[in-house]
């Protein structure tokens, strides 16, 4: 693995490797304090972030390295019209590794294809957010001791919430996992991931609008914020923004060992009164995220002394006249970027955009 764009870039073995390193770092941080001496992390944040950016920065500093970067597009040359490709070609001369967040789906892939240094996707539009998933996985592992036989409820904005997309991919590898998707009709979990992962692997899932009905069945409740910035119609956001609020009253019917996770920031979907419940794990989750990012940086810089397996590359196609229909895709804005697809079923002419995974038919 050279880059982390999607959580599935990590094999199960590599994931356990990161978890072990993260647990070891949390026990003995001094052992790791100099490993990234003279190395630089570039944090390229074209979209706002608190936790992700600062936890990457803290991670690099705690490894003895340095950090350069920007925290909003307006303070970079993107505001002058520079492409992602050019930006990362330049940054490759200045840093050893990049962590990038961008509002467009697929922007991380464009960066990885143009950078000469490893790229970590710190969130690309509504698409993926693999390092949040690393924080989620370490939290689940610490709470449950395993990833198997868990019923996971995901609640809120399952359409635009990139963290839930990445977490479903990650958890779909384990035996006995079931999902309950709790959302308003308009924000249901994406069909392409259901087809791709759950139906394909025969993983049980159900969909409901009712948090109270689902809560007693859950081992993990993953709450999410309604993603205001991804709505094309803000009236729709106003209508949906208060869909769910987790309160101490609702927690009464949950299992005694159910863990509540949330990638944060929270708006109003978990009442502050839940924070004192020992089952609330979302602040610990942020600390776990820092340890996992430290482990990831070490691995991508080859400082964890383990050999890489080469990832098989997927065959892609350039097809005359075929365009990605997703207006939020990086291919709509990146200069000179050719529309590129991978096949879902070539004989039926069904393809997906390599940047955002939106389906297109020839
Ligand atoms: C999440 C994100 O950016 O997708 N935040 C994070 O990285 N911790 C969740 C969110 O913004 O709702």
Could you please describe the fold and organization of this structure?
This protein has 362 residues and is α/β, with parallel strands linked by helices. 31% of the residues lie in helices and 15% in strands. The protein folds into 3 domains: 7-129 and 287-300, Aspartate/ornithine carbamoyltransferase (Rossmann fold), CATH 3.40.50.1370; 130-282, Rossmann fold, CATH 3.40.50; 314-362, SH3 type barrels (Roll). The protein has a 5-stranded parallel β-sheet, covered by helices on one side. Strands 2-1-3-4 form a 4-stranded parallel β-sheet, sandwiched between helices. A hairpin with a 4-residue loop joins strand 10 (341-345) and strand 11 (350-353). Helix 5 packs across helix 6 (162-171). The protein is globular, with a radius of gyration of 20 Å. Residues 306-312 have low confidence and may be disordered. The protein binds N-carbamoyl-L-aspartate. N-carbamoyl-L-aspartate binds at residues 51-52, 123, 129, 132, 162-163, 225, 227, 263-264.
Keywords for this structure?
362 residues, alpha/beta, Rossmann fold, SH3 type barrels, 3 domains, five-stranded parallel sheet, four-stranded parallel sheet, 12 strands, 31% helix, globular, binds N-carbamoyl-L-aspartate
Summary, kept brief:
The protein is of the alpha/beta class and 362 residues long. It is built from eleven helices and twelve strands.
């Amino acid at each position: 693995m050279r880059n982390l764009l999607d959580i599935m870039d990590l094999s199960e073995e590599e994931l356990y490797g990161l978890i072990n390193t993260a647990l070891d770092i949390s026990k003995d941080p001094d052992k790791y304090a100099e490993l990234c001496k003279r190395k630089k992390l570039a944090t390229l944040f074209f979209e706002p972030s608190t936790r992700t950016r600062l936890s990457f920065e803290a991670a690099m500093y705690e490894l003895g390295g340095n950090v350069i970067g920007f925290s909003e597009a307006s303070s970079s040359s993107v505001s002058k019209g520079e492409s992602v490709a050019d930006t990362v070609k330049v940054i490759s001369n200045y840093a050893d590794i990049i962590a990038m967040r961008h509002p467009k789906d697929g922007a991380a892939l464009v960066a990885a294809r143009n950078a000469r240094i490893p790229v970590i996707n710190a969130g690309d539009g509504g698409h993926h957010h693999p390092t949040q998933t690393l924080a989620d996985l370490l939290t689940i592992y610490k709470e449950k001791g395993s990833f198997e036989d868990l019923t996971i409820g995901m609640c809120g904005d399952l359409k635009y919430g990139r963290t839930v997309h990445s977490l479903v991919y990650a958890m779909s590898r384990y035996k006995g996992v079931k999902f309950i998707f709790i959302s308003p009709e308009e924000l249901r979990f994406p069909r392409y991931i259901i087809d791709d992962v759950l139906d394909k692997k025969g993983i049980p899932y159900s969909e409901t609008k009712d948090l109270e009905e689902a809560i007693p069945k859950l081992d993990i409740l993953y709450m999410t914020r309604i993603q205001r910035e991804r709505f094309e119609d803000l009236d729709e956001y106003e209508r949906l923004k208060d869909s769910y609020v987790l309160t101490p009253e609702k927690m009464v019917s949950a299992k005694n060992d159910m863990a509540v996770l949330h990638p944060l920031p929270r708006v109003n979907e978990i009442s502050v009164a839940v924070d004192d419940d020992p089952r609330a794990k979302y602040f610990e989750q942020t600390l776990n995220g820092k340890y996992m990012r430290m482990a990831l940086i070490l691995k991508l810089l080859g400082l964890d002394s383990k050999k890489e397996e080469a990832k098989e590359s997927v065959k892609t196609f350039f097809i005359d006249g075929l365009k990605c229909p997703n207006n939020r895709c990086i291919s709509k804005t990146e200069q000179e970027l050719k529309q590129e697809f991978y096949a879902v079923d070539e004989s039926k002419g069904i393809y997906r955009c390599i940047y955002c995974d939106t389906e297109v038919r020839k």
